[in-house]
Each structure stands twice: as C-alpha cells, then as structure tokens.
Write a structure and sequence with these properties.
Layout: H1 2-87
Length: about 90
C-alpha cells in the first residue's frame, strides 16, 4: 500500500510538472512571438519614416521641376512668337 501511495504521489507530481511545464512553454512561446512581432513593427516604423522623408524630398523636387517646366514652356512660347514675327 505504501508503494502504491508513493507511485501515485510520484505520478501526480510528474503530471503536475508536465502541466506546469507545458503552460510555461506555451507562455514562453507566446512571449517570444510577441517579441518578434514588436521587433518587426519597429523595423516597419523605421522604414515607413525613412520612406516618408524620401517622399517629402521627392515631392519638393517635383514641385521645383514643375515650376522650371512652366518657365521653360513660357519662354518657348515667347520665342515661338518672336520666331513667327521674324518669318513674316
């Protein structure tokens, strides 16, 4: 009887240890997954910020180029008008 009690106590301890160990392993896995997600979010935020800065720079450059194109179109129109005068 005593050995049966010892076996039952040992089995209960083993089962309890497995249960606690499994819960801890799941919790550790979830924490590891969350850490990975947080790192990925940080990387994406940094990339988004870099891209935002690049887009702002490119927008400013596009505005400059559009302004220059407008100037050149006006100059071209004036020169075309002057050329037409010289032809007649």
């Amino acid at each position: 009887m005593e050995s049966l009690t010892t076996i039952l106590i040992g089995a209960a301890g083993t089962i309890g240890g497995l249960f606690i160990g499994t819960r801890k392993a799941k919790a550790d896995a979830r924490q590891s997954e969350l850490d990975g997600v947080e790192k990925a979010i940080k990387i994406w935020r940094e990339m988004a910020e870099e891209l935002r800065e690049e887009v702002d720079t490119l927008k400013a450059k596009v505005e400059q180029l559009q302004s220059r194109v407008q100037e050149l179109m006006e100059e071209n129109t004036a020169m075309q008008a002057e050329l037409d005068k010289l032809k007649t």
